[in-house]
Amino acid sequence: MSETAVRRLDPALDAIVPSDAHLEIIHEDHTGFFEGPTWIPDRAGGHLIFTDIVGNVIRRWDASTGVTTLVDEVSKGADRSEGHLLDLGFRQVLLIGANGTTVDREGRISYCGYGTREVVRIEMDGRHRVLADRYRGLLLNRPNDLVFRSDGALYFTDSAADCHRAHDDPTRGVPHTGVYMLRDGDLRLLIENFVVPNGLAFSPDEQQLYVNDTRRKQIVRYDVRPDGTLEHGTLFIDMTSDPTPGEPDGMKVDRQGRVYCTGPGGLWIVTSQGRHIGTILTPEPLTNVSFGAADNRTLFLTGCSYVYRIALCGQRDGT
Q: Which of 45, 57, 216, 280 places its Cα 20 to 30 Å from the Cα of 128?
């Protein structure tokens, strides 16, 4: 794929996406389902990691070696009956492995175990340490995406509610979806009124947290209190008027406060005032997005069957 179509809704987009932008496929697999792109800086210039939730692996990509396997059988011992069977229309996929990923201040990868119902950190020696798997004695259901605050607090979404299992069933999950904060071993439920909470990202000053709801096709912005809890949730943008396939899922914010979120047609770019200024159109619905490359002006996008990259104008300094 050598060209990309861009829906330009505002001249402000011209300073972000160049007129000759190219959407390049860097990985293709029509049996997988890709998520969790995160750019990892290193001495060689950096590399991308991303998850294949169907294949239950974490992949590694760099421009010189291409795609290799970083972690095989990432969700060890996952019960396939706990996986989520997703109908894509043209094929069905069983989501059992890792979903969203992120990196902490020490360079350790953390991920949401979609099939194992837990949030996990990969230690430097390769051990997998469970950071969270229960809330008030009940199991989490579908940990989805996660982000660190600069003080080390970890925020993550749990996108499903368990309302069917008996009260004495040891596999019973929490009866609500949720946005959680984990700090110093203490897990706090911050929000539970979303249908399917999914992507989340902080504003550059970390005074606000954006959370999207896949089912409602909305992004909500919250003020962050000094203790890390949230208040004053307001609708940031509503995508329901666009019938094009695609939903809010993964989301990032750049240092200028612009929001980059998957949505109808591809990747939506929205100003900090909530104005949709354009969409990078993709041949399939997207699942997530990450800034990366040595100059940090490349967007990496994941979808059902492909992983893409596209260079932006100038320095974007994504967070």
A: 45
What pLDDT digit, counting tens, does each position of 3-51 carry? 579 999 999 999 999 999 999 999 999 999 999 999 999 888 899 999 9
Nearest CA to 16 out of 211, 257, 199 is that of 257
On the CB side of 123, how many CA atoms lie within 13 Å of its CA?
6
Output the six-digit token pair for 191: 């929000």
Indicate whether 157 belongs to any domain.
yes
318 falls within a domain: no
CATH at residue 97: 2.120.10.30
For 118, phi then psi, to 5°, come to: -150, 160
Domain assignment of residue 319, yes or no: no
Q: Report how far residue 278's alpha carbon sits from residue 251's, in angstroms, rounded to the nearest whole number.
A: 15
What SS3 class is residue 310?
strand
